[in-house]
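Appendix C: a fully annotated inverse folding record. The material below is reproduced so that readers can follow the format used throughout the book. The structure is listed first as tokens, followed by the designed sequence.
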């Protein structure tokens, strides 16, 4: 956690806007639960993880939109059990994420 905070602090010290994406709800199963967060810089650098890699690219795009527009919005990301099994995961699920500019 200290590594994540140090990275976010360095982005803010260089005057770069940061988006914080926080899980607010989990439907079925997910690697991380409500309250888990990741940060995205204006340069699209990432600190932290919400899924271990499965949804991070989509979250970087959503966080980038929030940074560009300045308006947060609820984002739903997930995969079905069939899709999950197809890529070697044991289960599917959906997370509701709130990306906001900080």
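Designed amino acids, in order:
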């Amino acid at each position: 956690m200290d590594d994540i905070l140090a990275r976010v602090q360095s982005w803010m010290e260089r005057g770069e806007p940061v988006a914080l994406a926080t899980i607010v709800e989990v439907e079925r199963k997910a690697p991380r639960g409500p309250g888990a967060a990741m940060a995205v810089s204006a340069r699209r650098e990432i600190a932290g993880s919400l899924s271990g890699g499965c949804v991070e690219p989509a979250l970087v795009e959503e966080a980038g939109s929030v940074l560009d527009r300045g308006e947060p919005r609820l984002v739903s990301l997930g995969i079905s059990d069939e899709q999950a099994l197809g890529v070697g995961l044991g289960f599917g699920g959906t997370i509701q994420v709130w990306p906001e500019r900080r």
